[in-house]
């Protein structure tokens, strides 16, 4: 039994053993298959990664990199590499060559060449370019591809910001990359065209020590680690200033502006921010983002090194790995960039010194008058649609512009006598006139002081040329404040005319009017008034009227393209005097010459320590942060010679402009307060409308029109000249009689000339000769015959009054009429009164000079009245005396040489100042 059991047991055991073996065999086989499946799966996954992420990405990823050296994965790796080789092979054939060609063109000179070609040589390219669009950083290669490399470059300046990041080991290479790039930029352009700012979070001394020599001249500013907000403020200010001052014509960027004007005067600012891979504080981050967004259009370029942030503006990135190679956004992940070897530190320092030295000598070179003018090909090329701008001085060797635009429509210039104010005005006029043609810009130039600085812009005896942009030149205005008033009135009228024209096109501004009426001529107007404080010198009607007009023009001129430039030795006191600070507020552009007071804002005393021939230009109503300190060139052209002399002075510029534009354009009107207007010119300007007129002088207006009294056959049409002394009285009376007689046909009027005082004998005789020469009979009557002649004329008037119509015209010219009092007696005086009262309506007019208002007043009573003298001109008599002739009207008049107060009931609401003409016989 037991034996039988054992055998069975043994069989069972054997059977199980066999089973176990079979199971073991089966399991062994399964395990083998699983291993190979896992291997295949792993290979497939890796191949998928390699194909999805790319070999380079895997290579760059520290976690993945071991895969590439795992022999078990050589299969997929080899397959991917083979495919990649094949894919790149086509590109490698001509891709690198094409890149090299592009770079050669886009990165000229120091932007692209190897350092030995430019290091320590100073660049000469100015802001007008050519501006490289790419800057070399190294060579690229494609891993495992054929050993072909190609140049790699990044865009900078106007194009794109640059963000460089590095690992711990790669930081030194990253800094060397930034240093090399900056040195390329600094070596390409003329020193001063690019300015650097460096801020390093970690060190006081900042990164990029090789560039330190540049700090000596301000080309490089190193910012304290704690002062990032200040740097960002500075950059933001700059962006704002570019927008409000330069990009006012609708140009989107400085680059676009430079393309249209052919010049770029604003330097590029490159701000290098060196971080420690930690994010910036929130507010700094936000402000930096704003700078990044607005910067490129305004020439502000950011280079960020290990400052992590997203930038909402064009930006290229370079990531430097620990091995010192890099990947750039320009070339993508498949290209490994071998960065240029760091420049030898000693060479960098030497180059920086060379640049700083060159900059120093450039800066100390005096910006000449010729340097504020555009290049010859650019003369007259700029349009004034929405603004005017032109440089007037230099800061650090670069021209600094003033802008008359929406944001800064008017300018206030201050500087004590001798500080160069006139010189600055002449420079400004020349710089503007050479940029804009006379259809784009017109000048109205007034000089209140005794100088004749603007006289050169009108044709003179020696120089017949004139400035084609000038419509009016007023010099020696001194006491003729009315002329300033007349200019303001003219501007106000022109402003209204423009507003009406705009309204007809359903627009409101000059800029829109020009677009709506492209054929129309709508130049911007610049009215310059030098020593304008004289206009407000007294508390009188002129000041009151001028204040109102100035306020109107200052406020509304902006939209009608009318700009005021007011200059003064001393503006202090004016503001208080006006009691209207709002007027000053419109004068956003302030220019203060050395020691100028109150031109800038109250706490801004920058003008006090200005050196000679410098100015503070401020487009921010004079507040401190708007200060720009410039050096002013000398507009007199002294010391210039050769080619330069052609454009080295205002006079030389005017001759070129005259030759170019004068033909077919009217000359500017010259108002010279120190000279008398010519009788013949004035008489020729009298209207010919059948009404006989007696010329008494020239109105103080922009047109320089003739002042005359109409003498139709109507009551009261007599003229009185009131003057104690005869010198000017005979000129007014002579002009009146000669012009009046000249308007009748020869022999068509009887003229009776009565010189009743000795000093009048000669002028009366000359007047008689002059009139007689035109064929008109003239009778001369002396003191002895005057009574009889007056009575005879009075009798004639009585006869005419009963007749059907006025008779033959008669003009009685009395020199020293009051002298007749002694001889007229009662009858004669009555006859005289009759002549005055009833003569005019019958064609008999009296033109008389009375030496005393009292005597005249005594004549105009009883059977005559003051109304019988319809018009008078008062010369050397006080307003209070004349008052008697116009009861109820306040006459404000202090006599001044060569001027008269003219009142004609028929045309004036109040008396007006006229200029006494020269003697007709003197011409
Ligand atoms: N930027 C300059 N460089 C060299 N010389 C200058 C400069 N500006 C002015 N001058 C000279 O200084 C003198 C005075 O200049 P300017 O007549 O312009 O001064 P001003 O302030 O208008 O004086 P004033 O009101 O007394 O006429 C002139 O001889 C002028 O040539």
From TrEMBL:
Residues where ATP binds: 415-422
Domain of life where this protein originates: Bacteria
Cell division among keywords: yes
Alphabetical keyword list: ATP-binding, Cell cycle, Cell division, Nucleotide-binding
CDD domains from the UniProt entry: TrwB_TraG_TraD_VirD4
Domain FtsK positions: 397-602
Family matches, as SUPFAM superfamilies: P-loop containing nucleoside triphosphate hydrolases
Gene Ontology biological process terms from the UniProt entry: cell division
InterPro entries per record: FtsK/SpoIIIE/SftA, FtsK_dom, P-loop_NTPase
PROSITE patterns for the chain: FTSK (PS50901)
Protein name (database record): Cell division protein FtsK
UniProt organism field: Pseudonocardia alaniniphila
């Amino acid at each position: 039994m037991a034996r039988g059991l054992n055998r069975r047991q043994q069989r069972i055991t054997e059977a199980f053993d066999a089973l176990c073996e079979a199971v073991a065999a089966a399991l062994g086989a399964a395990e083998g298959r699983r291993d190979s499946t896992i291997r295949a799966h792993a290979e497939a996954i890796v191949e998928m990664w390699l194909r999805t992420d790319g070999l380079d990405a895997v290579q760059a990823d520290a976690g993945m990199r071991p895969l590439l050296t795992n022999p078990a994965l050589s299969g997929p790796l080899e397959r991917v590499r083979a495919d990649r080789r094949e894919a790149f092979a086509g590109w490698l054939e001509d891709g690198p060559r094409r890149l090299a060609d592009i770079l050669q063109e886009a990165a000229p000179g120091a932007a692209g060449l190897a350092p030995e070609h430019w290091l320590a040589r100073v660049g000469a390219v100015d802001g007008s370019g050519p501006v490289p669009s790419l800057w070399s950083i190294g060579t690229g290669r494609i891993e495992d591809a054929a050993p072909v490399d190609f140049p790699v470059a990044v865009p900078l300046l106007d194009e794109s910001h640059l963000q460089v990041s590095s690992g711990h080991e790669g930081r030194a290479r990253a800094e060397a990359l930034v240093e090399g790039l900056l040195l390329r930029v600094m070596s390409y352009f003329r020193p001063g065209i690019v300015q650097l700012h460096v801020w390093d979070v970690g060190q006081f001394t900042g990164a990029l020590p090789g560039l330190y020599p540049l700090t000596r001249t301000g080309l490089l500013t190193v910012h304290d680690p704690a002062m990032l907000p200040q740097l960002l403020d500075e950059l933001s200010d700059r962006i704002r200033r570019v927008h409000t001052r330069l990009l006012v014509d609708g140009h989107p960027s400085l680059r676009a502006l430079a393309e249209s004007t052919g010049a770029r005067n604003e330097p590029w600012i490159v701000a290098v921010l060196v971080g420690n891979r930690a994010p910036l504080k929130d507010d700094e981050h936000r402000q930096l983002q704003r700078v990044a967004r607005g910067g490129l259009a305004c020439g502000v370029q950011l280079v960020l090194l290990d400052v992590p942030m997203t930038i909402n503006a064009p930006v290229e990135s370079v990531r430097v790995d620990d091995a010192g190679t890099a990947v750039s956004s320009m070339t993508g992940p498949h290209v490994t960039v071998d960065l240029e070897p760091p420049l030898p530190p000693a060479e960098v320092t030497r180059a920086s010194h060379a640049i700083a030295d060159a900059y120093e000598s450039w800066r100390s070179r005096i910006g000449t008058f010729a340097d504020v003018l555009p290049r010859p090909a650019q003369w007259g090329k700029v349009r004034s649609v929405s603004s005017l701008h032109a440089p007037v001085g230099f800061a650090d060797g670069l021209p600094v512009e003033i802008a008359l635009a929406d944001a800064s429509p008017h300018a206030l210039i201050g500087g004590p006598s001798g500080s160069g104010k006139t010189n600055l005005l002449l420079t400004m006029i020349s710089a503007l006139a050479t940029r804009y043609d006379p259809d784009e810009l017109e000048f109205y130039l007034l000089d209140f002081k005794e100088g004749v600085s603007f006289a050169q812009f009108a044709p003179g005896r020696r120089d017949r040329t004139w400035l084609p942009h000038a419509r009016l030149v007023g010099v020696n205005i001194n006491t003729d404040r009315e002329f300033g008033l007349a200019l303001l009135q003219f501007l106000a009228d022109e402003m209204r005319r423009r507003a009406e024209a705009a309204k007809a096109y359903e627009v409101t501004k000059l800029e829109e009017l020009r677009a709506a009426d492209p054929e129309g001529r709508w130049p911007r107007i610049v009215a310059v008034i030098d020593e304008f404080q004289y206009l407000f010198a007294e508390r009188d009607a002129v000041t009151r009227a001028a204040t109102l007009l100035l306020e109107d023009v200052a406020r509304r001129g902006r939209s009608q393209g009318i700009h005021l430039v007011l200059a003064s030795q001393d503006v202090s006191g004016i503001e208080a005097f006006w009691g209207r600070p709002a007027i000053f507020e419109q004068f956003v552009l302030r220019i203060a010459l050395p020691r100028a007071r109150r031109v800038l804002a109250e706490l801004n005393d920058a003008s006090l320590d200005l050196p000679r021939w410098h100015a503070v230009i401020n487009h921010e109503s004079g507040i401190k942060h708007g200060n720009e300190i410039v050096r002013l060139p000398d507009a007199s052209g002294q010391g210039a010679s050769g080619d330069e002399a052609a454009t080295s002075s205002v006079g030389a510029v005017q001759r070129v402009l005259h030759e170019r534009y004068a033909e077919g354009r009217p000359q500017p009107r010259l108002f010279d307060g120190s000279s008398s207007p010519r009788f013949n010119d004035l008489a020729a300007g009298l209207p010919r409308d059948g009404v006989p007129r007696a010329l008494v002088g020239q109105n103080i207006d922009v047109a320089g029109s003739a002042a005359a009294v109409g003498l139709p056959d109507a009551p009261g049409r007599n003229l009185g000249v009131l003057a104690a002394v005869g010198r000017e009285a005979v000129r007014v009376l002579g002009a009146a009689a000669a012009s009046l007689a000249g308007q009748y046909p020869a022999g068509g009027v009887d003229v009776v000339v009565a010189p009743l005082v000795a000093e009048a004998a000669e002028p009366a005789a000359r007047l008689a000769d002059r009139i007689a020469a035109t064929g008109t009979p003239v009778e001369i009557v002396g003191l002895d015959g005057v009574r009889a002649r007056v009575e005879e004329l009075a009798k004639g008037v009585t006869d005419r009054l009963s007749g059907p119509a006025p008779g033959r015209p008669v003009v009685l010219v009395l020199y020293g009429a009051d002298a007749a009092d002694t001889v007229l007696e009662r009858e004669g005086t009555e006859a005289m009164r009759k002549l005055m009262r009833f003569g005019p309506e019958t064609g008999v007019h009296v033109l008389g000079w009375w030496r005393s208002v009292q005597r005249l007043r005594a004549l105009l009573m009883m059977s005559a009245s003051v109304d019988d003298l319809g018009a008078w001109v008062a010369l050397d008599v006080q307003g209070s005396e004349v008052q008697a002739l116009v009861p109820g009207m306040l006459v404000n008049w202090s006599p001044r040489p060569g001027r008269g107060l003219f009142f004609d009931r028929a045309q004036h609401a109040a008396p007006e100042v006229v200029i006494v003409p020269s003697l007709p016989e003197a011409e």
